[in-house]
């Protein structure tokens, strides 16, 4: 009986560890047709909430930049001009603004390296530019042919972009070197986001697709009402799984609690 209790504690620890890294994302998208930033459930396509973009966006605008900065808990938005907006992701309220170069932008992404902010812009018909830090100078650029549309990163070192050759490239966000990986993008791909597990791609036909980030395989497809999303951001409900050492401590602690309880009841 007591051994069964200990086994139960072990099983609970294994289940907890197995689910610690699970991610369920909320997708943010710029819906130019409605002039809104919308929150979308990627498994159903349902719009959860919406609020107006911080500046007027044309209903026919094919491109703008949006990303969710995981470490900051902020939504970043850029369309045209020299202003990058930092937004409350739940209300759309402007938390602050930053200065950027006046680029013809098609995508936006954020990373953090050694505590330093890295902001990426997809410069249409050219390449990907990086600004470091906020309101700082351009530091690197990546060119794999023409940058076409969305960018997406998890904030922890993995960065992706859609390019004019019809492929999604993964590139190193801290070094302008050859791409790390690439695969064919879904037809009509315009928006891109990455939550640390899956890639999310919006198309000019109003679809939202979930992709395997390593192979590009389509895992799920939904339709979003109200118009296509021209750029995306992804907020993971749960962050990255604990490090192995943390998992070992967690397991040891749970087993210890089970053994002490067994001895107390013996």
CATH topology of the largest domain: Neuraminidase
| Structural class by helix and strand composition | alpha+beta
Q: Report how far the terminal alpha carbons are from each other.
A: 10 Å
What coarse outline follows from CA principal-axis ratios? globular
Name the CATH class of the largest domain. Answer: Mainly Beta
Number of strands: 20
Largest sheet: 4 strands, antiparallel
Report on the architecture of this protein.
It is a single chain. With 266 residues, the chain is of the alpha+beta class. The protein has 2 domains: 1-20 and 245-266; 28-240, TolB, C-terminal domain (Neuraminidase, 6 Propeller). The chain is 15% helix and 43% strand. The chain has 2 helices and 20 strands. A hairpin with a 4-residue loop joins strand 1 and strand 2 (36-40). It is globular and about 40 Å long. It has helices at 2-19, 244-265; strands at residues 25-31, 36-40, 47-52, 65-69, 74-78, 83-87, 94-99, 105-113, 116-123, 128-131, 138-142, 147-153, 159-163, 167-171, 181-184, 189-194, 198-203, 207-212, 218-223, 232-236.
Features of the shown structure:
266 residues; alpha+beta; Neuraminidase; 2 domains; 4-stranded antiparallel sheet; 2 helices; 15% helix; globular; disordered N terminus
Give a quick rundown of the structure.
With 266 residues, this protein is α+β, with helices and mostly antiparallel strands. The protein has helices at 2-19, 244-265, and strands at 25-31, 36-40, 47-52, 65-69, 74-78, 83-87, 94-99, 105-113, 116-123, 128-131, 138-142, 147-153, 159-163, 167-171, 181-184, 189-194, 198-203, 207-212, 218-223, 232-236.
């Amino acid at each position: 009986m007591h051994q069964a209790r200990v086994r139960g504690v072990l099983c609970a620890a294994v289940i907890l560890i197995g689910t610690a890294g699970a991610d369920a994302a909320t997708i943010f998208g710029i819906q130019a047709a409605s002039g809104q930033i919308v929150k979308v459930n990627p498994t159903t396509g349902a719009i959860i909430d919406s609020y107006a973009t911080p500046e007027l966006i044309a209903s026919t605008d094919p491109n703008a930049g949006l990303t969710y900065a995981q470490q900051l808990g902020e939504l970043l938005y850029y369309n045209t001009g020299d202003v990058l907006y930092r937004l409350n992701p739940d209300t759309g309220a402007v938390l602050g603004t930053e200065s950027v170069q006046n680029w013809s932008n098609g995508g936006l992404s954020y990373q953090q390296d050694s505590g330093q902010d890295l902001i990426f812009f997809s410069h249409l018909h050219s390449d990907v530019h990086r600004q470091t830090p906020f309101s700082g100078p351009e530091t690197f650029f990546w060119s794999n042919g023409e940058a076409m549309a969305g960018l997406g990163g998890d904030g922890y070192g993995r960065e992706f972009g859609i390019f004019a050759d019809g492929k999604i490239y993964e590139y190193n966000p801290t070094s302008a070197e050859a791409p790390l990986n690439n695969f064919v993008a879904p037809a009509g791909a315009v928006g891109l986001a990455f939550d640390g597990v899956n890639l999310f791609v919006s198309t000019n036909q109003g679809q939202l697709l979930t992709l395997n980030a390593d192979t590009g395989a389509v895992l799920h497809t939904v339709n979003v009402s109200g118009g296509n999303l021209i750029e995306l951001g992804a907020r993971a409900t749960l962050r990255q799984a604990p490090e192995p050492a943390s998992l070992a401590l967690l397991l040891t602690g749970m087993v210890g609690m089970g053994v002490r309880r067994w001895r107390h009841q013996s």
